[in-house]
Write a structure and sequence with these properties.
Elements lengths: L1 H11 L6 E3 L5 E3 L9 H23 L5 H16 L5 H24 L1 H8 L1 H20 L1 H4 L3 H28 L5 H22 L11 H6 L2 H10 L7 H7 L3 H12 L5 H13 L8 H6 L4 H16 L2 H14 L7 H26 L1 H25 L6 H20 L2 H9 L5 H30 L3 H19 L8 H12 L4 H6 L3 E4 L3 E4 L8
Antiparallel strand pairs: 1-2, 3-4
Helix pairs in contact: 1-18, 2-8, 2-9, 2-11, 4-8, 4-22, 5-6, 5-22, 6-8, 6-11, 8-9, 8-21, 8-22, 9-18, 12-13, 16-21, 16-22, 16-23, 17-18, 17-20, 18-19, 18-20, 19-20, 19-23, 21-22
Length: 535
Amino acid sequence: MRAVQHFIKRLLGHTTLPIEKGPDGSQTDLSDPAMKMTLLLALVALVSAFGSSFQYGYNVSVINSPAPYMQDFYNQTYFNRNGVPMDSSFQTLLWSLTVSMFPLGGLFGSLMVWPLVNNCGRKGTLLINNLFSIAAAILMGTSELAKTFEVIILSRVIMGIYAGLASNVVPMFLGEISPKNLRGAIGVVPQLFITVGILVAQILGLNSILGNAEGWAVLLGLTGIPSAIQLLILPFFPESPRYLLIQKGNEEQARQALQRLRGWDDVDDEIEEMRREDRSEKEEGQFTVLSLCTFRGLRWQLISIIVMMMGQQLSGINGVFYYADRIFQSAGVDSNNVQYVTVSIGAVNVVMTLLAVFIVEALGRRILLLAGFGLCCVSCAVLTLALNLQTTVSWMSYLSIVCVIVYIIGHAIGASPIPFVMITEMFLQSSRPAAFMVGGSVHWLCNFTVGLVFLYMEAGLGPYCFLIFCAICLATIIYIFFIVPETKNKTFMEINRIMAKRNKVEIQEDKEELKDFQTVPGGQAEKKETSNSEL
């Protein structure tokens, strides 16, 4: 509770907040108006996440409830065309394609991140991305009238491309426009809207609402509404100041955008920090994925995001949701009411992700990562035991339910939201787009792989497949504990210095700072006098 109260005080700008010191001795006054949440910053975060991240979550879950009715539509359409029923193996193939094309499209979308954000900007990429969503929504919504199931499969690819771009660009955009003391909280907002999207799809997908033979096409088509809203509102909001200054070289536009976001005219400190970042990267220029993978100065950052993204997707979240229905049925929940229990699990996911928004700035990223993966690890181990014993020990089915809930909590507070925040914070402007391209590709490739092989794992290993997930969570915990630093309330340059020591390289900014020193009699080094604007 103290952590939540502390963050709320920060958010509201209470002047009793302490002075926080950075690792280099610099001080941050958290009562500074530039450190507060402004109305415009909040609106940018909400509109960006609602218009983009919400749809990612919505489309993850939207075809689960109406699946039987959609399969009936596939069968009936095939029969009307050919005069013979569809073969069961072909039906399975079509449905597998319908499900798996979404993460495959997500992989394609992630590969488009680097060229789009560098050429069109963060906001510009989000606006362009909405065209994918609206086109896919129209195609899916009219598929029943057009009597074609192929268009649904194609639309799932298009929505995957949209989600692949959105899942990377939104955290990047919000991380770049946020003050350092709110960057973690605002960075979790996209994940919060992903969980809200999943919950809304589960609610609308109830048999009594749209998850039926008459409503499934409407359910699929609704995904275009948030994109239309974002397309109308987002143009009035500013572009990322870091993109404007560092990549476009337009300091005046960057200053104006920063002043609007902060609600404060004195933004010289942040502008100067951007200049330092720009100077430190002059030698390297813009990173491509290839140069990122071969550059020694970013070695541990790159390895860290790959490990965290793999841990996020290979930690068993798909398996837990797959087993959830049969776990609740074994505990005595009627099969007709399982969908309502699934909605309640979605609600827990939303509540715990919302909690992460409030505690990430107080507890830090590293603690939430360790706690989140730790809860997932323990849950997978106990769930293996409970599933194997629930036929002989009656109360084990209830322990299975507890494990599912604890797992969802762990994933919601750490494993799901924090890795994307860490990509934003561990890379500077020139390497960040390429880093998101790598991290996003790993995210979607692992998602696609788990969806492809999990049923075979479950058939071969049964409940013991969760031991594999347990081992992956444990390996991720060990890596984070020894390698990943805390990035809370640090500037991008401060984080860069921490990682430079780990990579055993000297950053360009540190070399340039040597010019500020001069030798005085006696052989001692003395720092030159600098103006306040240079500090």
